[in-house]
Amino acid sequence: MNTFASLTAAALLVVGVTSARAQAQAQDAGAPAAAAAAAAAAANASAESHIPPAPADKAQVVFFRTGAYAGAATWFKVRENDAELGKLSNQSYFVALLDPGAHTFTSATENKTHLKMELDAGETYYVRGTLQMGVLLYEVNLAPADQDLFEKHYGHMHMVKFQAGDTGK
Question: Is the pTM of this model over 0.70?
Answer without folding.
Answer: no
